[in-house]
Amino acid sequence: MNIYIMKYYLILILIILSCTSEKSTFTSDVEKLSIQVPFPADLSVSTELIDDRVLYFAELVTYKQIVKYDLYDNEQVTIDLNELLDSLNYDLIDFEVVDSSEICLLTKNERLLFIDHQSKLLKDIDLSFLKEKGVKSYYPIEYDGNCFHLGLSSYEYSEKPTLTMEDYIEMERLKRTKPVVLSFENIVNLNDMESLKFNWGNIYNRFLKKSDVSTEGNRFSLDGVENKYFHSIYSDTLYQYNQDFKLENAIKIKSNLVEGIGSNKLSISEHLDANKKVLFNKNITYIDFVCNSSDSGIIVFLKSVLRTENGKTQQRMVIQEYNNNGQLKNESLLEENLNVRNIINFKGDFYVQEKGHKKKFVLINLKDLK
Asked: Which domain of life is it from (predicted)?
């Protein structure tokens, strides 16, 4: 072959390789590990025990089961909750693993249940006392190794079947005075209001106007005792708090791969005007998941939902890594076959559901983020 033709092809190959590397797609290491669970897992949690490496998956509505998955020997143990829930007539919202002998279940019935790993009921805690604060238990329930943290919801959202503009304005004002999280160490003293810590009252006033409406559920992430993160679909800022819920950092989240982070604010008048259908036509990008990285930085997953002309939606997922000063180090698109509705963080590894295959989780690792 002519030497000039060989040089031409060599240069062409180098150009193609350089263009390909710029796409920077965050891929899953399917060969390293994939996990099959016996039901579509809608909730999942990871836990680190002293001598174990264990993941937990749950479907709490239809199957009413929790699967304990041991990563060392690939064994699965099923914790069946059907008999327990039938006897109590409770419906579940969330669960959290306390330790190797205890699991916490959050119900829709203002009850907090503690069971062992054989689904035997250990404690049934009444949460109806929260009504004194004008709130009720909502979602999620999380345990940081020291304290429990329970998401709260304001009662104003369920009292009236139809709402006027004035009702919405007053409801928003009241909601923003209410705490978002209840923190407690000792479940025995839950009826003692002085021993409870109600956190993150007024936090929505940081980024919403008086005329804006907020309809999202609680969006906070806890990673260990010292790191608490609050984020909202209405804000492009990640709020970082210490173990006493004192604000330490407000990190502006930016991206070169998706646009409009937290820009989907909605006024009350837009919310009430059904003809505009603003709620259904807006493209939205928001912070979806937050955790610590192994080197004391922060990992952020962004979700972008694009509305097409025919009414369908397209989703893009971006994973970012920030240093401990809140500066963006790198970011990448997540490959399209992964559904980041369910993410499990375990020592810097992420187990993510495959799209169209809710029973399968695959491993992605930060070493792939470039």
From this structure: Bacteria
Give 204's DSSP letter.
Answer: G
203-209, long-range: CB < 8 A, 24+ apart: 203/176, 203/230, 203/239, 204/175, 204/176, 204/232, 204/234, 205/176, 206/235, 206/237, 206/239, 207/232, 207/234, 207/235, 207/237, 207/262, 208/172, 208/176, 208/234, 208/265, 209/265, 209/267
Helices (H), 34-150: 82-88
State how far the Cα of 244 lies from the Cα of 35, in Å rounded to an integer.
Answer: 37
Question: Amino acid identity of 46?
Answer: S
Which pLDDT score, from 0 to 100, does residue 155 have?
64
Nearest-CA neighbor of 350 among 333, 336, 338, 332?
Answer: 338
In a domain, 222, yes or no: yes
pTM of model > 0.85: no
Query: Over 60-92, what HEC string results?
Result: CCCCCEEEEEECCCCCEEEEECHHHHHHHCCCE
Which candidate, 16, 20, 19, 56, places its Cα nearest to that of 39?
56
Cα dihedral 147, 150, 151, 155 sign: negative
The reply to whether 254 falls in a domain is yes
Residue with the two structure tokens 């173990």: 243
Note whether residue 165 is domain-resident: no
The number of domains in the chain is: 1
Q: What is the pLDDT of residue 224?
A: 65
Question: Which regions in the chain score pLDDT beneath 70?
Answer: 1-33, 46-52, 155-161, 187-194, 223-225, 274-282, 294-296, 311, 336-342, 347-348, 354-358, 365-370
- Where in the sequence is the domain holding 245, given as residue range(s)? 206-334
pLDDT recorded at residue 87? 95
109 burial level (CB within 10 Å; 0-12, 13-18, 19+): middle
Q: What is the pLDDT at residue 44? A: 72
